[in-house]
């Protein structure tokens, strides 16, 4: 379960962890339905993303090593690039409106089990 601990709101009941380069490379590309993804990196870094071959708008949440939200990208449309300003250890790719519906804000704590 993905949960906004700071606001006590469930972000998603199910999600998929992406550890290896293949799952990180493909992410939501070519998917018919969106299942939230959690990208897990070895070190904090700037994680540039694109939405080529993603058929729907998505929300993106960037977390540091303390699971704090360091950056948000709402409503990333298909065929766009996004380069965050902040480093992240975890990146969440979520259905559109997840940020608003779960009341996710900078410095919130997000957990996943």
Question: Could you walk me through the main structural features you see in this protein, from its secondary elements to its overall organization?
Answer:
This protein has 113 residues and is mainly β. It has one domain (2-112): Protein of unknown function DUF192 (Jelly Rolls). It is 9% helix and 42% strand. The chain has 2 helices and 10 strands, in the order βββαββββββαβ. It has helices at 21-26, 98-101; strands spanning 2-4, 9-12, 16-18, 37-45, 49-50, 58-63, 69-76, 81-82, 88-95, 110-112. The strands form 3 sheets. Strands 3-4-9-6-7 form a 5-stranded mixed sheet. A 3-stranded antiparallel sheet has the order 2-1-10. It is globular, with a radius of gyration of 13 Å.
Structural class: mainly beta
- CATH-derived topology: Jelly Rolls
Low-confidence stretches: none
CATH level-4 homologous superfamily:
Protein of unknown function DUF192
* Neighbour order of strands in the largest sheet: 3-4-9-6-7
Structural shape: globular
* Count of helix runs: 2
Radius of gyration: 13 Å
Which CATH first-tier class would you pick?
A: Mainly Beta
Listing every helix as H and every strand as E from the N terminus to the C terminus, the arrangement reads: EEEHEEEEEEHE
What is the CATH architecture annotation? Sandwich
Question: Keywords for this structure?
Answer:
2 helices, 113 residues, mainly beta, Jelly Rolls
Summarize the structure.
This protein is mainly β and 113 residues long. It is built from 2 helices and 10 strands.
Q: Topology, pairings included?
A:
Blueprint: E1 2-4, E2 9-12, E3 16-18, H1 21-26, E4 37-45, E5 49-50, E6 58-63, E7 69-76, E8 81-82, E9 88-95, H2 98-101, E10 110-112
Parallel strand pairs: 3-4
Antiparallel strand pairs: 1-2, 1-10, 4-9, 5-8, 6-7, 6-9
């Amino acid at each position: 379960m993905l949960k906004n601990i700071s606001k006590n709101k469930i972000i998603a009941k199910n999600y998929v962890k992406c550890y290896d380069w293949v799952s990180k490379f493909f992410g939501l590309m070519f998917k018919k339905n969106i299942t939230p993804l959690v990208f897990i990196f070895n070190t904090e870094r700037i994680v540039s993303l694109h939405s080529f071959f993603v058929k729907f708008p998505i929300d993106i949440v960037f977390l540091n090593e303390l699971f704090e939200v360091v950056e948000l990208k709402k409503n990333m449309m298909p065929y766009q690039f996004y380069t965050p300003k902040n480093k992240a250890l975890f990146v969440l790719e979520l259905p559109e409106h997840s940020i608003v519906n779960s009341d996710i804000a900078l410095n919130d704590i997000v957990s996943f089990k």
